[in-house]
Design goal:
The structure holds two protein chains of two kinds.
Chain A lengths: L2 E12 L38 H13 L3 E2 L2 E2 L2 E4 L9 E4 L6 E2 L2 E6 L2 E14 L3 E4 L4 E4 L6 E7 L6 H18 L11 E11 L9 E6 L2 H20 L7 E6 L4 E7 L9 E2 L6 E2 L2 H9 L5 H12 L3 H8 L2 H14 L2 H19 L10 H12 L5 H14 L3 H8 L7 H14 L1 H8 L3 H14 L6 H12 L3
Parallel strand pairs in A: 13-14
Antiparallel strand pairs in A: 1-11, 1-12, 2-6, 3-17, 4-5, 4-16, 6-8, 7-8, 8-11, 9-10, 12-13, 14-15
Helix pairs in contact in A: 2-3, 5-6, 7-8, 7-9, 9-10, 12-14, 12-15, 13-14, 14-15
Chain B lengths: L9 H10 L4 H19 L2 E3 L2 H16 L10 E5 L26 H8 L3 E6 L33 H8 L5 E6 L5 H7 L2 E4 L19 E6 L2 H11 L29 E5 L9 H16 L3 E5 L7 H16 L18 H12 L2 H13 L6 H24 L2 E5 L15 H5 L6 H6 L3 E6 L8 E6 L5 H18 L1
Parallel strand pairs in B: 2-3, 2-4, 7-8, 7-9
Antiparallel strand pairs in B: 1-3, 4-6, 5-6, 5-10, 9-11, 10-11
Helix pairs in contact in B: 2-3, 5-6, 7-15, 9-11, 9-12
Classes of the chains: A alpha+beta, B alpha/beta.
Chain lengths: 475, 482
């Protein structure tokens, strides 16, 4: 018997705003506990929420990026449940009138595109963070009230790999939109998964489990592998899957039951009387739509058609909006898109990886990289020289031409000077000359290398190779 | 300095201080002495911070010496104990907030502070403003100065009793279903519930967020106009406060009602009403007619549903608003809990009184899965009808006159075991909260041992000027007669 898997994701994304969702407290990580708090986000008697308009803007932008319908009339509701990390013991969220409805994210697996539907995106406030000690617990409310966007997918994914790809694609889109840092490890992107399994001849969906505590992208993948096999094994033994919430234990690699459906909360939603409904005029939404960045998938396609890049290059470059923007500026100036792409995919990525930093931290600019590519293309410098210039551009920036001058890296293309080095190299290596005459290509490479050494790297290696071949009458 | 506390008003005290008859410090000292003398019997106050009040009074005197003026400079007022004043207690008359000191000023409080007001003390109330007699205070009973066997009304009973007993010339109350107007009527003082959104609720410990309003309780309508003017206006901290210009309310106070159409809603003049109340209201209507007003009959057909709607909406909102009192961050935390749920249960069991528990349970019930549509949603629909009633009525009249309550003050303990009978005290007042409109209670003149009776004047949203004008003209005429 074959089994079919159905997966839906609820992704919580902390929005990148200056202040919290309903008060003026700054958002931020790493501050000492309970220092970014005020009567509002601590739920003190009499304190009232005031909506952060930027959070609404970022949520709508997210919706527009995935083609959601943006509600002209939306509202906030109170979701009641008691928990120590929740200051008011109700969360201000959105129940039946979310900001964004519908939309989709396209994923590509094994070269096949698949559209994953999005049910809705709503805006709410984050809760605090509990820490448990031997005999007591503490709550840090710095995070309480951070704007949190919840993106609910349709149950459209049919494998753990599809869920993983959806999460990746969604993250890419949100990073492009600039609405969040989307870092799962830092908790500014969190994910709950609903998963069920059913025999292939059954039309109605199987009983689902909700998985929590998926703090990494790998966690999403691995917990799903485990859960799909657990549920499949139950069904194969003729047992029933229980509807429940299960916690992923990344150390043991298993999920364990947290609570069954009978214990489910009755959240007693009702409209938040302290806030007015959110009314978004059409013109406002259209203005935001007009200012949207290009979506990553569209950009990848355009990079292939406009710059003639291989699919692979385009995929690597668009993964980060910052890098893709950098590429486009440099490629436009250099007139050699593939050359710029090669530099970015090798040297730039290496530096970013080594230093674990972002592009903006480097002194390298699109202008200087473009200039460097042009210097190579015009054979003013050779590759070893160019790499030396690149290191300088990364560390202290500047004009590549000036650095070439300063370091005396200009390539020697003057036939007279090169000929002297060629003659010297041939005299000193008669065996290699002989081998080359007899058709050994490696010997030619060796001789070119010797000339480069004698010229301290400045000779134009192509000219050197040609001159040796001419002298020996080899084709 | 001898003060006649039964007659002192904001306006007269300000005039006296401007003339240099006495200082704010002298006035505040005298009031503190008056409270010390009277309050053991009345029980209007929960706390009086003498040092805090005298410091503010001296600061006001110093400002005056430097040339500062203002209608509220150096004027002492009492504050209902659910409004936040920085550094002061805010118990809401509940054990669960015993020992809590507020970290901030309510916006209305901050505006009065800026105007030079002295905060005299904290007045008693029904716990979390839930009640109509102030008997639900966790700390003390407040007695009606007109007859100490009787309740002062509620929930702002301490604020009303303080004014009536001469322990304050003015106080702040809050009104969710009549909590300013009903005690004002019971004690014989003026009480104003402004339009919803007129005065910021920021810093008002919420009972029912869509109904609560802060308002003044005073001896004269003029004093209410002064206090309203100082507190009103949009507040960035309260999204439900509205951007409507604040007029000069005192400038609207005339003694002539020519051309004003006053509506009498037949649903508010019902069988079983107290004969004395009916007689006083009929006299008041006659006085208004003599002042030039036209009296018209109007109908508010959905009035009979108001109490039911009110107790669904208010308890639903309260059940969420009071969820924050859990022992985690402030206030009472019960000892000996084994886990968070146990801590919530024990803390709330010990910290809340029976009426608060009753309403939290009711509110939780009406919001529960499967009941929401039948109760909360239905109540909101009827609420819209009640609002519509008033909109239609205000096409035929400019303001509406009714009794504030169907009966005068009842005896302490009389209704405490009959919550339904207690809830019916709000029958004429809750409609204004449901409709979000302004309503004023003005005392009617009563003879000798007769209990105070209140005339309620209701106006359209943001119609405070007219409501105050009618109240002032009536009060002036009545006092002229005395």
């Amino acid at each position: 018997m074959r089994y079919l898997t159905t997966i839906g994701l609820e992704v919580h994304v902390q929005l990148k705003t200056q202040s919290k969702m309903f008060c003026a407290c700054p958002t931020g990580h790493g501050a000492p506990p309970n220092t970014l708090v005020c009567p509002v986000c601590l739920g003190y008697p009499g304190a009232m929420p005031v909506m952060n308009e930027e959070a609404v803007h970022l949520t709508v932008v997210s919706g527009l990026m995935i083609g959601s319908h943006i509600s002209e009339f939306s509202k906030f509701d109170r979701k009641s449940y008691f928990y120590p990390d929740m200051p008011k013991n109700y969360q201000i969220s959105q129940f039946d009138k979310p900001l964004c409805e519908g939309g989709s994210v396209t994923i590509t697996l094994d070269g096949q595109d698949k559209v994953i539907g999005v049910t809705r995106i709503h805006l709410e406030e984050d809760v605090g963070k509990s820490t448990h000690y031997a005999k007591s617990s503490g709550v840090d409310f710095n995070r309480a009230g951070h704007p949190l966007m919840e993106i609910v997918s349709d149950p459209d994914m049919e494998s753990p790999e599809e869920a993983y790809a959806y999460l990746q694609a969604l993250r890419e889109i949100l990073l492009y939109a600039g609405v969040s840092d989307c870092n799962l490890e830092e908790g500014n992107m969190r994910c709950d998964v609903n998963v069920s399994v059913r025999p292939e001849n059954q039309t109605e969906l199987g009983t689902k489990a909700e998985l929590k505590n998926l703090n990494t992208q790998k966690g999403v993948l691995n917990s799903l592998y485990y859960e799909v096999s657990r549920q499949t094994a139950l069904l194969e033994r003729g047992e029933r899957v229980v509807q429940e919430t299960r916690r992923w234990d990344p150390d043991k690699g298993i999920t364990t039951s947290m609570r069954v459906k009978e214990d489910a909360h009755d959240y007693r939603y009702f409209p938040e009387p302290d806030l007015l409904p959110v009314v978004l005029p059409r013109e406002q939404v259209e203005a935001w739509r007009a200012a949207l960045p290009e979506r990553p998938r569209a950009r990848r396609t355009r990079f292939v058609s406009e710059y003639g890049l291989p699919e692979y290059d385009a995929g690597v470059l668009i993964a980060s909006r910052e890098i893709a923007d950098f590429f486009e500026t440099a490629a436009g100036l250099a007139g050699n898109a593939k050359g710029v792409s090669n530099w970015i995919m090798t040297e730039v990525m290496r530096v970013l990886g080594d230093d674990a930093c972002t592009l903006s931290a480097l002194k390298l600019t699109p202008e200087s990289l473009a200039e460097l590519v042009k210097l190579v293309d015009s054979k003013t410098i050779n590759m070893p020289g160019a790499k030396a210039v690149f290191e300088v551009l990364v560390d202290r920036g500047g004009d590549p031409r000036a650095i070439v001058e300063e370091k005396g890296l200009a390539q020697v293309s003057d036939t007279g000077s090169i000929e002297a080095f060629v003659d010297q190299a041939m005299q000193e290596n008669p065996q290699s000359v002989e081998d080359y005459r007899n058709g050994k290509k490696a010997a030619a490479q060796f001789l070119v290398g010797q000339v480069m050494r004698l010229s301290r790297g400045k000779a134009n290696p192509q000219m050197v190779g040609q001159m040796i071949a001419d002298k020996l009458g080899v084709e | 300095m001898n003060f006649d506390f039964s007659d002192l008003t904001i306006a007269s005290a300000q005039a006296a201080m401007e003339r240099g008859d006495y200082t704010s410090e002298a006035l505040v000292s005298a009031l503190i002495a008056r409270i010390a003398e009277k309050d053991a019997e009345i029980g209007a106050y929960l706390t009086v911070d003498e040092g805090y009040a005298l410091d503010q009074a001296r600061a006001a005197d110093a400002a005056r010496a430097e040339g500062r003026q203002g209608p509220l400079l150096g004027i002492p007022i009492g504050i209902k104990d659910l409004l936040n004043v920085e550094g002061q207690p805010c118990t809401c008359a509940s054990r669960i907030l015993e020992g809590y000191a507020s970290p901030y000023d309510a916006t209305a409080v901050a505006r009065l502070r800026d105007a030079g007001v002295v905060f005299l003390g904290r007045t008693n109330m029904d716990e979390f403003a839930m009640g109509s007699s102030t008997e639900n205070s966790a700390f003390r009973v407040t007695r009606n100065p007109a007859d100490t066997e009787r309740v002062p009304g509620g929930s702002s009973g301490g604020s009303a009793a303080a004014v009536a007993a001469g322990e304050a010339m003015a106080t702040l109350g809050t009104d969710t279903g009549g909590s300013i107007r009903q005690p004002a009527a019971f004690c014989g003082c003026v009480g104003l519930k402004p339009t919803y959104g007129r005065v910021s609720r920021y810093g008002l410990t919420a009972f029912a967020s869509s109904l609560d309003q802060i308002g003044p309780m005073t001896r004269t309508v003029r004093d209410s106009a002064i206090l309203l003017g100082a507190m009103a206006g949009q507040d960035p901290m309260d999204s439900t406060s509205l951007d409507v210009p604040v007029p000069d309310y005192c400038a609207a106070l005339t003694t002539d009602l020519t051309g004003v159409r006053l509506g009498l809603p037949r649903e508010y003049f019902v069988d079983g009403m107290d004969a004395g109340v009916l007689a006083r209201i009929n006299e008041a209507v006659e006085i208004c007619r003599k002042l030039g007003a036209t009296i018209v009959d109007v109908s508010l057909p959905h009035t009979e549903y108001a109490i039911a709607v009110y107790y669904v909406v208010a308890t639903a909102e309260a059940s969420a608003n009071l969820a924050r009192f859990d022992g985690v961050r402030y206030g009472l935390r019960a000892e000996g809990a084994t886990d968070p749920i146990d801590m919530y249960g024990k803390t709330r069991a010990q910290g809340f009184g029976p009426e608060v528990k009753r309403r939290v349970i009711l509110g939780t019930y009406v919001l529960s899965g499967g009941y929401y549509d039948a109760y909360y949603l239905k109540a909101q629909k009827v609420r819209t009808l009640i609002r519509g009633d008033f909109e239609k009525a205000f096409e035929q009249c400019d303001a509406i006159l009714t009794p504030t309550t169907p009966t005068p003050a009842f005896k302490v303990g009389e209704n405490i075991n009959d919550p339904l009978k207690m809830y019916l005290n709000d029958v004429f007042t809750a409609t204004a909260n449901l409709a979000g409109i302004p309503a004023l209670s003005v005392p009617c003149p009563v003879a000798g041992s007769e209990l105070p009776v209140g005339l309620q004047i209701l106006g359209p949203a943001f119609g405070e000027e007219l409501v105050l004008r009618v109240g002032h003209a009536y009060q002036s005429k009545v006092e002229e007669g005395n």
